[in-house]
Amino acid sequence: MTDSINATGADGGLGGFFQNLTDSIISQIPFWQDVLLPALWDGLWVTMQLVVMTAPLGFLLGLLIAVSRVYGSAPVKWLAQLYVIFFRGCPLLVLLFILYFGLPSVGIVLGSFMSALVGFILCNSAYNSEYLRGALQSIKRGQLLAARSLGMTKMQGVMYVVVPQALRRALPGVSNEFIYLIKYSSLAYVVAVIELTGAAKIIASKYFMYFEAFAAVGIFYLVIVTIATIGIHRLEMKYAIPGVSGAVGKVSKGH
Amino acid sequence: MSDVPILKVENLCKSYGDLEVLKSVSFEIYKGEKKVFVGPSGTGKSTLLRCINQLTIPDSGFVYLNGEEIVHSGKKINGYRQKMGMVFQNFNLFDHLTAVRNVELALLKVKKLDKAAAHEKAMYELEQVGMADRADFYPAQLSGGQAQRVSIARALAMDPEVMLFDEPTSALDPELKREVMEVMRKLADRGMTCIVVTHEMKFATSFATEIYLMEKGEIVEHGPPSDIPTSPGFVKTRAFMGSYVEE
User: Fold this and answer.
1) What is the value of ipTM here, to two decimals?
2) Residue of A149, A156, A171, A236 to mutate when probing chain B, most B C-beta within 10 A
């Protein structure tokens, strides 16, 4: 960088600056091709594994917790609430340390990838359960009453009538959590999982190319998040209920 | 008229805290009868209907469906509820499903019909209420009257023996009330046993075989429609009643 500034000064023109920048980029091509990108692809693969496994499991577990909190019996409600208090209240970093460094001392060795996966699922599900709980509670009581009046069990009414509607309402929150998951998956490197950020950090330290390595990683995340955002938007469009814009509905009256 | 009433309600009581909503209500209804409950708002009419099909659990009292006691029937209540179709004031159509899928859902999940059979039955019921042409509309795309007709079809699809109508027209504009009342009349003409809670006195007198006047959780008077409008109890409460909609 210092070289390029000096060179610009020496040439005394903008043309010289661009000439040097181009030279510098060209000289870096082998580094990108042979070192940085292969490492980042490997890291990306690990990140994708973490995200793709965490998202559905964290969602389903979150749904289970939310349904337990809204419709469960008193002890079930209590347990579900305890789960949320604990895993939402505990910083993810601390949770990962406990899983990776702490559990072996009581004889449970999860390994680095599994520690990260379990930590992410616990955290992701706790947050998702809150979005889903809010959505479940926002569905008019009459919907479940109508289901039950037709002879459905409470579980059937919740599964076929309340949950499908609640999922649509929770979608913005749950997708937010999904985007967030893509980014906090970078924390896996603290438990020795070489995912995208970890891979970049190793290369950056080794070749002293911090700017290049992390700029490239930033672009990687940006691309993944953009693709995810487009996917989520499609999902929202697909499941939008015709005739309903936002949460419109008649106020339910009666005892 | 058979010997056993389709539905017999015996000393039903329900309180919310200190508020006694139902004070020992009893009545019975035989096949093909149409009993209409009228009375000022907040007198427990809707609670009575919900205590009949156990959507609200009564504090005490009994409900017999074809002679079988159902208040303490545990899980069997889901079977009994199918025999008592319920229509709500706010329709309560499943917002995420089209009209026809609203009707199909319980046929698939409760009656366990296969898809084709459920669809055929649902379309038949929608036709009965004149809603077949709106089968693929979502509830938010229907008028209130149309939504209520779909909800009637949804209840009828379970082949109930008695229909419970909880202020079916209260949330509707006058014109829309009429289309729902017409469907109810058609149903009654086909011999359906009906219990109706309403504020529409004109409709009540022309529809009912017997009118019950409720006040503060009690049945204060009952009799054939010809008597009720002139009875002293009715004249007294008339001031509190809802509109007198012309049909």
Assistant:
1) 0.91
2) A149
